[in-house]
Design goal:
Blueprint (H helix, E strand, L loop, with lengths): L2 H14 L12 E6 L6 E8 L5 E9 L2 H14 L4 H17 L10 H8 L8 H22 L2
Antiparallel strand pairs: 1-2, 2-3
Helix pairs in contact: 1-2, 2-5, 3-5
Length: 149
């Protein structure tokens, strides 16, 4: 199987069977986003413990396959990670789509890296980049709310 086909398969799987959909129990931070150009909507629910580890991360939303897959991949990858790692990965992900760079964190498993990289194909379609990045920007908004407290 070619890499492009594998990436398409990963995106379709996450879009049809999203992970961590719904409100996570006991969330203490959240943020919403809406893209009026295409109608995509996402609401991220974040539960941080006292050590700033993500003990819960989920989403509700509707939109295209890219948008849903990206939110699913985000929650699946970052759940259980600490906030510092999550910020770094989010910035790497956004940089990957904006500047066609590689994910620099080496603490991801091969499967996690492949799954996140599956969204790199949207680089070729500038109108779809917002679909892929909306959930990640929304997570950063939820984290910013945390730093104000």
């Amino acid at each position: 199987m070619e890499l492009k086909e594998l990436y398409q398969e990963i995106i379709l799987d996450h879009a049809k069977n999203p992970r961590n959909q719904g409100k996570c129990e006991g969330y203490n931070y959240d943020a919403k986003a809406h893209n009026p150009l295409c109608g995509d909507k996402v609401h991220i629910y974040l539960k941080l413990d006292k050590d700033e580890n993500i003990s819960g991360l989920s989403f509700e939303g509707e939109g295209c396959a890219i948008s849903l897959a990206s939110a699913s991949i985000l929650t699946d990858t970052l759940k259980g990670k600490d906030l510092q790692f999550s910020r770094k990965l989010t910035n790497d992900f956004l940089d990957m789509l904006k500047n066609k760079s590689k994910i620099r964190l080496n603490s991801l498993s091969e499967d996690q890296l492949t799954t996140i990289s599956s969204l790199s194909g949207v680089q070729e379609f500038p109108m779809r980049i917002k679909c892929a990045t909306m959930a990640w920007h929304t997570l950063l908004s939820a984290v910013k709310k945390k730093s104000k407290i």
